[in-house]
Design goal:
Elements lengths: L1 E5 L3 E5 L2 H16 L12 H5 L1 H5 L14 E7 L4 E4 L1 H6 L19 H17 L3 E9 L5 E12 L5 E10 L14 H9 L7 H7 L4 H12 L3 H16 L6 H7 L5 H12 L3 H16 L8
Antiparallel strand pairs: 1-2, 3-4, 3-7, 5-6, 6-7
Length: about 300
């Protein structure tokens, strides 16, 4: 076992990220009664650097480094990064692409978030079915949530076999262009933002969008990869994350965001963020305390 520091100064005892992902995959497959269909042995940094050449395919275009609102990533079957554009490097405070090679999402995110990303990656690699514009909420490690539209596709070698995964995650806050396809839902989205504390009727949202209920629900999910009810829930949780840092009572935040009872609020918050509201507050406090200390070498 080793000890690593992850987002907001939280310390977790665990093995290496690759070992953790491998154990989790084996456990999940065992419970599901399935034999492993993907190789998950970790590669060296040099092997990750030579990934594209070894597979007989082109390396990602240097144009990806010019993207100012989109993270590009490529990973092998074991979930190790074999490429990441400049914006992704900056997001993780890395000096260059060589510093991301061989690392996994467990090196950058809380365990529950990294596990969720890994599960999505495995599903794409196992089925060969791409994921398009999936709305994700990621805790960036500084107490702020990042809203991403993520697209993932399998990487195939020159023989056509799936050997990894690549994709884009567009930061909704960095680019208004991301929202352009959703202008037909502008009225209902604004209504949700203005009435978060109320019991929002999906029928009313459909009328605001000048659609029948069935058409509204179908088109909304096509664009946002969430049902209208799920979207409303995400917005309420997002507002709760804004209020929690200065809140003296979680119950009051639950009321202020329209959840009513604290128990229900905690359950829904955890389903999206991955931790309870109290844990979220504590992690923020730990992050602030860590940031206030003089810089020091990380402990072993």
């Amino acid at each position: 076992m080793s000890t690593i520091v992850v987002g907001m100064g939280m310390v977790i005892a665990m093995g290496s990220p690759a070992e953790h992902a491998e154990r989790k995959e084996r456990s999940e497959r065992k419970r599901a009664g399935r034999a492993p269909s993907l190789g998950s042995s970790s590669a060296t940094r040099e092997e990750c650097a030579n990934f594209f050449a070894a597979q007989g395919i082109s390396t990602p275009s240097i144009l990806f480094d010019t993207l100012s609102d989109t993270y590009y990533f490529a990973k092998n079957k074991a979930g190790q990064f074999v490429w990441g554009n400049r914006l992704l490097q900056e997001q993780h405070a890395l000096a260059g692409v060589k510093d991301i090679l061989g690392k996994t999402d467990h090196d950058f995110f809380r365990r529950d978030i990294a596990d969720r990303i890994r599960a999505d990656d495995l599903a794409v690699m196992e089925t060969g079915v791409s994921v398009k514009n999936k709305l994700e909420v990621i805790d960036g490690g500084k107490g702020e949530l990042t809203w991403l539209f993520t697209t993932k596709v399998p990487i195939r070698n020159r023989e056509g076999a799936i050997v990894g995964i690549e994709g884009f995650s567009r930061d909704a806050r960095r680019s208004q262009d991301t929202i352009a396809p959703f202008h037909e839902f502008k009225a209902c989205v604004e209504y949700v933002q203005e009435h978060l504390t109320e019991n929002i009727s999906i029928d009313h949202l459909a009328r605001l969008s000048c659609m029948s209920l069935s058409t509204f629900e179908r088109k909304f999910k096509e664009h946002f990869s969430l049902t209208p009810k799920q979207y409303v829930l995400h917005m309420k949780v997002h507002e709760a994350c804004r209020l929690l840092p200065g809140a003296s009572s979680i119950a009051r935040v639950a009321l202020a965001t329209g959840f009513g009872g604290q128990s229900y609020f905690t359950k829904q918050f955890r389903s999206i963020v991955g931790i309870t509201p109290k844990q979220y507050q504590l992690s923020l406090a730990a992050g602030r305390a860590l940031g206030a200390r003089p810089a020091a070498a990380p402990s072993a």
